């Protein structure tokens, strides 16, 4: 007896085959071709995930792979879902968070709706890679082997690992290299210690496939107490191609040490009180704010679990100046990541910070209170 999952796969194959036949008879109206115009965009912007053996449910590295998904590509682009972590910042560039440019969107949308022409044999697809994007780490911490059973599709596992001789050494960056790239969907790397954290940052990394880690600038580091242990929370999720398989993974965490005695990275949070939970589809929002009692340098920002599915806007109003939009982004569930500024943003004492979160569509605003976002900052000298 066929399982429901098997029928889903069969249906997807038939739909894709039908789409290929329909596309093959479309009139060619696009001035763009796959090899010359579309492939460079997919290679540079999408192939970190959409590659054979990658975490995405389909590869987009050849015309044969891409054409059957033309309508899905059009829908996702129009909805603004890809890339999944695009952010807008008023004058302060956010690293590795650029959305597709107007030209890139035009090329892709014109190609998928204009007959998907190909002008040369496509190149062979590159295998899914998992190289260290910051170069070789100073130290490696191997995770235990994880097995995801044939009947399991989406599993989250937390590992607590000793740092041994690496404890007590401040860090400038942390990265993760998945053993099985098609299985590892996301990871959260933090520190567990008996030492009081206060406003000291204990979250070392929010890893998602396709993202590039950002090292802290010189003179700043993640404080690592001598009793600290590494906590790695990994989400494993199969793609439809592997849904009935037993899969295994053994990922590694790469540690990059900072110079001796750097200034510790700190956190600034924005709490909101509990409130009545809204129904999905009903637009709801909250606003939180705080004045700065001292000047700070903002290095990065990341959302909390409370804001999953919300549109986040963070504004700064200096004592003598106009409101400035620091960043605006959608906190898409399953794509938690840290947004780092290309050039850190200095805010003087007395600046009023305002954070708004708006939920709409299928995601409802949570009823419980908590923190909206976390700003990573370092104090600036008093003037």
Q: How many runs of DSSP E, i.e. beta strands?
A: 20
Helix content range of the residues, please?
10-25%
Oligomer: single chain
CA-to-CA gap between the ends? 75 Å
From the 3D structure, determine the CATH topology of the largest domain.
Jelly Rolls
Write down the domain tally.
3
Helices, by number, come to 5
Rounded average pLDDT: 81
In which order are the strands of the major sheet placed? 1-17-16-19-14
Strand content: 25-35%
Note the main sheet.
5 strands, antiparallel
Radius of gyration: 23 Å
Structural class designation = alpha+beta
What characteristic shape results from the CA principal axes?
Answer: globular
- Stretches where pLDDT falls below 50 for ≥5 residues? 1-24, 124-128
* SSE pattern: HHHHEHEEEEEEEEEEEEEEEEEEE
Structure description:
The protein is an alpha+beta fold and 383 residues long. The protein contains 5 helices and 20 strands. It folds into 3 domains: 4-113, no CATH class; 139-263, Sandwich (Jelly Rolls), CATH 2.60.120; 265-379, Jelly Rolls, CATH 2.60.120.230. 15% of the residues lie in helices and 33% in strands. Helix 2 crosses helix 5.
């Amino acid at each position: 007896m066929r399982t429901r999952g098997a029928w889903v796969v069969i249906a997807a194959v038939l739909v894709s085959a039908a789409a290929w036949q329909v596309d093959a008879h479309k009139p060619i109206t696009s001035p763009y071709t796959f090899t010359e115009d579309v492939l460079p965009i997919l290679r540079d912007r999408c192939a970190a995930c959409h590659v054979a053996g990658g975490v995405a449910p389909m590869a987009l590295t050849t015309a044969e792979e891409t054409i059957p998904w033309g309508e899905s590509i059009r829908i996702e682009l129009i909805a603004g879902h890809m890339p999944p972590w695009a952010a807008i910042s008023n004058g302060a560039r956010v690293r590795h968070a650029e959305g597709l440019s107007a030209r890139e969107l035009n090329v892709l949308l014109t190609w998928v709706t204009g007959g998907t022409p190909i002008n040369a044999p496509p190149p062979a697809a590159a295998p899914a890679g998992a190289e260290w994007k910051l170069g070789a780490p100073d130290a490696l911490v191997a995770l235990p082997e994880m097995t995801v059973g044939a009947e399991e599709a989406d599993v989250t596992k937390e590992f607590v690992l000793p740092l041994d001789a690496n404890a007590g050494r401040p860090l400038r960056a942390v990265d993760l290299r998945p053993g099985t790239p098609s299985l590892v969907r996301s990871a959260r790397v933090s520190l567990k210690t008996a030492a009081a954290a206060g406003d000291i940052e204990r979250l070392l990394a929010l890893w998602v496939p396709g993202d590039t880690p950002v090292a802290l600038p010189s003179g700043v580091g993640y404080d690592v107490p001598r009793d600290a242990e590494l906590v790695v929370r990994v989400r494993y999720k199969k793609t439809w191609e592997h849904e009935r398989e037993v899969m295994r993974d053994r990922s590694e965490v790469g540690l990059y040490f900072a110079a001796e005695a750097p200034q510790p990275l700190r956190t600034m949070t924005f709490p909101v009180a509990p409130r009545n939970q809204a129904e999905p589809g009903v637009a709801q929002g909250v606003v939180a704010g705080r004045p700065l009692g001292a000047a700070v340098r903002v290095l990065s920002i990341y959302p909390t679990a409370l804001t999953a599915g919300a549109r986040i806007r963070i504004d700064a109003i200096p004592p003598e100046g106009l409101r400035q939009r620091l960043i605006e982004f959608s906190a898409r569930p399953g794509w938690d990541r840290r947004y780092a500024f290309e050039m850190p943003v200095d805010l003087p004492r007395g600046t009023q910070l305002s954070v708004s979160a708006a939920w709409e569509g299928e995601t409802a605003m949570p009823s419980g209170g908590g923190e909206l976002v976390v700003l990573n900052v370092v104090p600036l000298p008093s003037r």
